[in-house]
Write a structure and sequence with these properties.
This protein is about 25% helix and about 20% strand. It is of the alpha/beta class.
């Protein structure tokens, strides 16, 4: 059954198709920002991309230096499209773009005209990729509309709310170690959120964004694997056993952790346990609280002219403890930033160790409790007073402690 051209639902005359450009010559004429925006997807597709332009942006030059594209800094000439499978006319000169389209037509090569989409023989769709899907949207050359619709589809797919019908064969298997970020549920990665929406079992830490658990279906088994500071804690071996047992039973397991799985999260131990049991593991990095929580409190861990280093240290073992692997004397001699995690309960010990090692007593300190959440609190102090300030202000875990000159910076420069 054919569709009539008068069908009101077929107002866009373009035929949407996927091109296999792997190893095939693609010519892009123009080296400005318009061309730059298109090069990423072209190179990712494996295309043999040739850029011809009078001048190029630094990014385009960098791509050429890295061998991702070839770049010729010259005017376009008739004949430049010889051997091309696909062409993009991206100059800021309408007459040049018109000439490129004309040559492409003579050679029977599809050509996108960036300055006037309807005058080319092809239109670039607004695209998004999700779990093996590539979605393209065309809107008769209305790029703003197609981009807006693409974004809505992307967000719906990422949030698991699109109602997508999936093939069970494509369902993930094994275990995914997912970093949930510092606490705000919007700061989990898109991939982490997608895998969470596909989970049969979720093994969650108490620092993982708890709001995300409310999005899970009633069929999902949620296991509390909290390790509360100085309180109830599930043994690591028990967590490892659960991951392996559920995965071996054919269920897809997401181990949802706060921050990043490999930053004081014992994620690598869980990877080793699953690998030893023959269970496949996917690792999804997360935004670590060591950097993101200071950022949420307007504290950069580095700043030009202030510090050239930052060190992240676990405070779960006090200085001088037989199990401590930290050289506190060496840390005290550094001039840069020290980010202390899990250090609230023993802050007096850590401050004393740094002072004894030579850190100035007036070194600025910022303490951020429950960073990125609505309950976030920030306390400023100096190294000699931080222990008293934490006690007087009632600061409790989880909190990040930033020690160093950057802790004295303020956005207004005062």
């Amino acid at each position: 059954m054919s569709s009539e051209s008068t069908d009101p639902n077929r107002s866009d005359p373009n035929y949407l198709v996927g091109l296999n450009l792997n190893g095939r010559r693609v010519v892009v004429v123009g080296g400005g920002s318009v061309a730059q925006r298109r090069l990423g997807l072209l190179t990712a597709s494996g295309a043999d991309v040739h850029v011809i332009a009078r001048a190029a942006t630094p990014v385009v030059e960098s791509m050429a230096a890295k061998g991702r594209v070839t770049l010729e800094l010259r005017d376009y000439r008739d004949g430049d499209l010889d051997g091309a499978w696909y062409v993009l006319a991206c100059t800021d000169e309408p007459a040049t773009n018109e000439a490129i389209v004309a040559e492409a037509d003579r050679r029977h090569v599809f050509c996108v005209r960036a300055d006037s989409a309807r005058d080319g023989s092809a239109v670039t769709p607004a695209t998004t990729a999700h779990d093996g899907l590539t979605v393209g949207v065309l809107a008769s050359g209305d790029h703003r509309r197609s981009a807006a619709v693409r974004t809505s589809i992307r967000d719906a797919l990422a949030g698991g709310s699109f109602g997508e019908v999936t093939d069970t064969a494509a369902k993930p298997v094994g275990v995914a170690l997912v970093g949930g970020g510092p606490g705000d549920p919007d700061l989990i990665t898109v991939r982490g959120r997608r895998l969470l929406a596909q989970a049969d079992v979720v093994v969650a830490d108490h620092l993982a964004p708890q709001e995300l658990l409310a999005e899970l279906g009633p069929q999902v088994e949620v296991i509390d694997a909290a390790k509360l500071p100085y309180g109830r804690a599930m043994a690591q071996q028990a967590i490892n056993d659960i991951l392996v047992d559920r995965a071996r039973a054919g269920r897809f397991v997401v181990r949802l952790k706060g921050g990043d799985p490999y930053v004081f999260g014992r994620g690598y131990e869980e990877l080793q346990a699953c690998t030893a049991a023959g269970v496949p593991v996917t690792v999804v990095p997360g935004i670590t609280s060591a950097i993101s929580v200071p950022s949420a409190a307007d504290v950069p861990v580095t700043h030009r002219g202030v510090t050239h280093e930052f060190v992240v240290v676990s405070g779960h073992v006090a200085p001088g403890h037989p199990d401590s692997l930290t050289d506190w004397d060496a840390l005290a001699k550094l001039r840069g930033t020290l980010v202390l995690l899990m250090g609230v309960e023993r802050i007096d010990r850590f401050a004393d160790a740094l002072l004894a090692g030579g850190r100035p007593s007036d070194t600025p300190v910022v303490v951020v409790q429950e960073g990125t959440l609505r309950s976030q609190r920030t306390v400023r102090a100096e190294l000699s007073t931080v222990a008293t300030r934490i006690r007087d202000e009632g600061i409790r875990p989880p909190a990040i402690i930033v020690i160093g000159p950057v802790a004295g910076l303020t956005p207004d420069g005062r």
